[in-house]
Amino acid sequence: VKEVASLSLVSSACEVVSAAYASSKESQPCLSSVCDAAERGVQSVTQATASCVQPMLATLEPHVAAVSEYAAKGLDKLGEKLPLLPKPVEQILSDTKELLSSRVAEVKEAVSS
Known about the structure:
90% helix, lipid droplet, Perilipin
């Protein structure tokens, strides 16, 4: 999970969503109170779940480590096949805009000639 979260694409997407969420809460007082209540509920459930699951995680730790290692290898292979994963969202959007602009320019030139 940490490796996936550390990917530029994932972390920048989370930042964009977080900023939109914060902006929505600021601009809509009614939405803000609903979101605050939901956040408190999620925090309570998370704390209760963590205390119950902790003993189980200790016994499963060797298995979790093996799965984590396997997942890391798979993530490395995925990164090789999808070179855009390490890029931030802004870079991907910028590259896409540039590519589309150049293709449109090529089409315009072909049509005009």
